[in-house]
Model the fold of this input.
Amino acid sequence: MTRHTLDARRLLCPMPVIRTQNKIKSLAPGDIVEVVCTDPGATNDIPAWCRMHGHAVIATETRSGEFIITVEVGKIAG
Done:
């Protein structure tokens, strides 16, 4: 398992989801990616995308106006 950070700050829907999708394509099952966003819609969009594609949101938090969504890559990468 490897941890990664994805900077999706200052991007509006649907770009945080697209960047997350592209990042996950290059990762292995079990890897963790922390997506840092400023678009509050990403807190709904990324978890919905994860449910559809077999990945798990393991944490969400807000820090200093930024939204951090931590995703564990599932068996079906991409």
Remarks:
- The CA atoms of residues 9 and 70 lie 15 Å apart.
- The first strand starts at residue 3 and ends at 8.
